[in-house]
Amino acid sequence: MSLKKAFFLTLTMMSSISNAQKVHNPAQYVHPIIGTEKMGHTYPGATVPFGAVQLSPETDTLSYEINGKYNPNVYKYCAGYRYEDKTIVGFSHTHFSGTGHSDLGDFLVMPTVGKLQMNPGTAEHPETGFRSRFSHDQETAEAGYYKVKLTDHDILAELTATPRVGIHQYTFPKSDDAHIILDLMYGIYNYEDKNVWTYVRVVNDHLITGFRQTNGWARTRTVYFAMEFSKPFKSYGNKDFDGKQPYRGFWRKWNMNENFPELAGKKIRMHFDFETQDQEKIMVKMAISPVSQANALENLNTEAPEWNFAKYRNQAQEEWNRELGKIDIETNSQDDLVNFYTSMYHTFINPTVYMDTNGEYKGLDQNIHKAEGFTHYTTFSLWDTYRALHPFFNIIQPTRNNDMVKSMMAHYDQFSLKMLPVWSHYGNENWCMSGYHSVSVLADAIIKGNYTGDPEAALNACIATSEKRNYEGIGDYTDRGYIPAEKNGTSVSNTLEYAYDDWAIAQIAKKLGKTDVYNKYIKRSGNWRNVFDPSIGFMRPKLEDGSFKKDFDLQSTHGQGFIEGNSWNYSFFVPQNPKALIEAMGGNKKFSSKLDELFSMHLPDAFFADTEDITREGIIGGYVHGNEPAHHIAYLYNFAGQPWKTQKMVRHILKMQYQARPDGLGGNDDCGQMSAWYIFSSLGFYPVAPGSDEYSIGSPAVRKAVLHLENGKTFTINTVNQNDKNIYVEKADLNGKPLKNYSLKHQEIMNGGTLTFYMSAQPKK
Amino acid sequence: MSLKKAFFLTLTMMSSISNAQKVHNPAQYVHPIIGTEKMGHTYPGATVPFGAVQLSPETDTLSYEINGKYNPNVYKYCAGYRYEDKTIVGFSHTHFSGTGHSDLGDFLVMPTVGKLQMNPGTAEHPETGFRSRFSHDQETAEAGYYKVKLTDHDILAELTATPRVGIHQYTFPKSDDAHIILDLMYGIYNYEDKNVWTYVRVVNDHLITGFRQTNGWARTRTVYFAMEFSKPFKSYGNKDFDGKQPYRGFWRKWNMNENFPELAGKKIRMHFDFETQDQEKIMVKMAISPVSQANALENLNTEAPEWNFAKYRNQAQEEWNRELGKIDIETNSQDDLVNFYTSMYHTFINPTVYMDTNGEYKGLDQNIHKAEGFTHYTTFSLWDTYRALHPFFNIIQPTRNNDMVKSMMAHYDQFSLKMLPVWSHYGNENWCMSGYHSVSVLADAIIKGNYTGDPEAALNACIATSEKRNYEGIGDYTDRGYIPAEKNGTSVSNTLEYAYDDWAIAQIAKKLGKTDVYNKYIKRSGNWRNVFDPSIGFMRPKLEDGSFKKDFDLQSTHGQGFIEGNSWNYSFFVPQNPKALIEAMGGNKKFSSKLDELFSMHLPDAFFADTEDITREGIIGGYVHGNEPAHHIAYLYNFAGQPWKTQKMVRHILKMQYQARPDGLGGNDDCGQMSAWYIFSSLGFYPVAPGSDEYSIGSPAVRKAVLHLENGKTFTINTVNQNDKNIYVEKADLNGKPLKNYSLKHQEIMNGGTLTFYMSAQPKK
């Protein structure tokens, strides 16, 4: 990080507090800019907790393809904004936070002055289009608020949001020729045919409505909008960039490019024209809906009826304070405060509310449903988030997590395939990544007593999902206990993940007293053994004939049966039974040595070319924290009798992988999973096997944390002798009694109480 | 017509009756096959009166373009079926009746046996695809019922319908390899990008739902469906013909081609597989909705819950008898019976019901609306149908016509452009043809006391529509009283039609006592004078500088300022004031001679190449009956003191232009306008100027007609000495008193009573 960046980050903090004080305004420590450089894939714009609108700047308009071939640069733009870019093309209303594949970017809005430009222009020559240069010196990103000076147009752009409405405030210079561009072509991960259809109607001189339908990561997705201007536009127009328009001869009776209120096509950009006085503010409110223009309008009028930017900004920031205030912390450093609350901010972005103010949403069946008695959510990046994000929610957001499980059950009910979500957003399944980890989220919520729906129906949904023989090797897995390498490119990952998921299903069955189901799935949960090669002590692709794949590289991912993790990382993936894994690997000592080797090995450069989503900074030795499969590994020392190594590594990872800088995240934040790891680990414990009610103890990084639980109770984490050197836990007391086995029960947290860590610079061997 | 055809038509009549008898089963005289050859553009399939479903065979799958250029052959397939074709590709559920441009063709279904074919194959080699040969000998088309033997597959296909459900019954041979194809790519006037998106979900082994979204004549149109099979399919699959499928990598985890229940794309065909016993019947019910899959399912379950083909067939035919029975007739010949009831059948097809059983429909604003207190209709081919179809409805279908006007007002209210429909279907305006003839339909309904909505709102909608300065020369028309030829390719037609429409607006204003509005519009109604060139006695394009276009051809249409009619035909288009036109043309004698010349001139072959929608059979001299602008002309002799010539020409046109043969219509039936002309003229009167309450007397072709009016009264047309030679009206008595001025008032019909024509072989000069 340059000194300049560090200086900037410090400057943007609204006040300096004594570390030992209770945090009254935690939102001030949120720096949405963290993760916007390199691999974090976060966005700096404005959103409210779990809001449906994520209003954020875009710094380029890359296509998914160039001349029909995948454009590798598009990957960097998963969140639309790159910190290293010099220009902004506009502000769009929907973004994923931290993903490694992408979609969305609906309804790009850009204010300009001067000659009307209907193309964005290039980053090298922004004057060739409507885009503008900007500088980080004139940019502020806060929880719920974003501000930037668009220098080419001398316009100050400010953004805030309500759950379903993006609110823009543009301060213009004096101009006879001011414009607000609405780009309906723009999209994230855009390709030639991604825009399936767009429709716009100009209702009057300050209101337009319409929709945009895309075929992207979400295969069949329509977002409706209602867009209102605080000042009537004096004129408007559009350009349809789709050359091919056969069969519309009769529309040519009109001049449809100027002041024409009824537009439809695939590639439309609109402009709205104004005369402005110097420093005149024009506000734009853009409400979205997954259901209809009428609902978008209702969302607009329900959530943001006024023309009062400050009010909505304050409202958004109060909401962030309310949510972030569920944990008060004291830390060793200002940076730790920033990292903690920024992580917490990142965990409270996805999943997002997916229903209108009237409760309606479009389901997996493309029908309109109404969420009765719960809030319906979307954006389930489950391969990532089952690990720590949903467990974190079970502690700090139990009502929302319960509703998220209900949303997943609604997905199951509505889907003709009768499967729980794998990776779903906007009423679509996109099938990204491996496993059927919904079952882990369901199990975790049910085991922890946090699901108010019908647990039998949930179990049935888990079973049905796990029995989809045609999906990703499940048939072979069911028949043989493993997926033959010939049949599936990620045969080992899948086998390991299914085995863990099956254990999660077994936990639900046990809780419901379904012994047969329990027995069946607990047996399946041992399937990891089938891809474990005892002769080398690693997980390894197995062929149809039962022999292990000959040509095998422990450090490669692709072509070796793994996804986002090599055998070195995946070989430790038996979270459901670490003891058995340790035994298989030759006992505590050998196992610990192997972990030591993982954390200390030197990797060749070739490795990085071959591994997705991470940078060299996302790696410690051969341990890949930037991807998720290894997230529990540091805690496995606990199971091998060397808890001090867990403590050391956790503190090391916290320091190395999370830094209060734009490039401070070592990998994709993945809808908050990376951040949830940070929070758990900072607090001193981690859910190694979601679906169990136990947490494994690490080493707290906070000095103190007070968790204000929804049940009204308070769980306090205290430390004694805490500092950056005293990273080892001498002992830990729960309510004054020693904690056993480096393990904490969920109920012990939810009962309220105090967990006190006595810290030391010496490992307690 | 070949003898064979004549024989076939006679055979299909279900019984022979004495011409003098009351008709108890008028549907037996309906021959939907009439108009399916040459220019009629009717379809032979099954529909109920004004039904939303028109289930009919398609005989080819032509593309709108070939190598990016318009394919002129596609025009012939406006209704999907050509009598001269030898093969059928399947049966689709939506069709226009008689149009000269097209759209629709949703959800093509085709039963097959033998090797699965996913392409239709060619007409020359039907064995290369799923299509089949058929023969008219094994084909029956009745009102509400269609039957054909698909000889290549040895399958008997039978079709019937409820308002919103197409009902298929396929009688299979014994086969292990029977299929029902669902082609979601097929469409009428199909071009490369017409299919915007399709979506299908297989709900269970006998029910699928989904939608098809198109960008065609209707720019933004989605039809949802629910399709149910009487027998569970043993397997199913699909082929997606869209080569380009970027960005869907994760879906490749599945084999989506076989038994995969969740499909989406642009070019999908599906197959459903069965084992059949010999003569086993499999039924298919396909419900459609403009709103949602859920509504389609509700339509299915509300209208057609049973598996009883005979019941729905009987129901459809009873409904036709009920509607056709509103007029009982006696005729001179069997052919006249067939022509009359087939014409009546064709008038009762369009407009079509456009709302679900729960009243919901998608409006012009792409929002979902509910029709409260009226039936919502679509398919308004108003340039055609304002002339005689809607006037006919004001007599015989007043409730429906009132609802149609309400539907047009809903269109106005929902449309961002605030215009009444020009040519609209499925919640879309397509802007086809000239004028703003909605105002005529509104005026006719209001003047005749048949509109129960707010007439002031209706007048305001008319005014707003007539003031759209940017539409088709209205600005110039308003400022100058005519449209300069430089500005608009159809400047004369438009000027003439606007002038008539303005007269219609004036009639509403007069009725509402709005003197200012009346004065303004009655003045505009004289604008026809501005394009009348007294030096030649014809309508003629006028230039911006006020001079008439020099290079001018009375017989050309294109490039001469006209549309679907040359100056010879359009010069008589002053229906609002024939007397003034006669005066301008030099008085009764000169005017009559000019009419004589029109009806007797010889046209060069080049004329036919230049004139749309008609064949040589659609022309009498230079009078083009096959297009609409001349439809009132035969009645103009009445206004020039030579009513016997009206009588003679009307009878001549009735004979020449309407024949009980597949090729018996002289031009496009145009959603019933040609047929409505037939009915009025057969009954002995015609609405020369809709919006007036007067009908002009012609010469009845029926012997007797009894109109059973909705108000419970009966209006009887009697003739004395009626036969094919006695074509002249000696005198006409209304309720025993002589009719004056060859004119009949609307109220005189609605009061009930008897109009007696005394016929003679001698003109009464």
Tell me what you see in this structure.
The structure is a homodimer of 765-residue chains. Chain A is of the alpha+beta class and 765 residues long. Helices cover 26% and strands 24% of the residues of chain A. A nine-stranded antiparallel sheet of chain A has the order 8-9-10-11-19-15-14-13-17. Chain A has a six-stranded mixed sheet with strand order 20-34-35-39-36-37. Chain A has a four-stranded antiparallel sheet with strand order 6-12-18-16, with no helix packed on it. In chain A, helix 8 (438-447) packs antiparallel against helix 9, helix 8 packs parallel to helix 11 and helix 9 (455-466) packs antiparallel against helix 11. Chains A and B meet through strand 13 and strand 14 of A and strand 13 and strand 14 of B.
A few lines on this structure:
2 copies of one chain form a homodimer. Chain A is α+β, with helices and mostly antiparallel strands and about 775 residues long.
Whole-number radius of gyration of chain A? 26 Å
In terms of structural class, how would the helical and strand content of chain A be classed?
alpha+beta
| Share in β-strands of chain A | 15-25%
How can the largest sheet of chain A be summarized?
9 strands, antiparallel
**Quaternary form:** homodimer
| CA-CA gap between termini of chain A | 37 Å
Give the uncertain stretches of chain A in residue-range form. Answer: 1-22
Q: Tell me roughly what share of residues is in helical segments of chain A.
A: 25-40%
Largest interface, counted with CB-CB under 8 A? A-B, 52 and 52 residues
Widest beta sheet: strand line-up of chain A: 8-9-10-11-19-15-14-13-17
Mean pLDDT of chain A: 93
What's the number of extended β-strand segments of chain A? 39
What's the helix count of chain A? 19
Given the C-alpha coordinates, what overall shape of chain A results?
Answer: globular
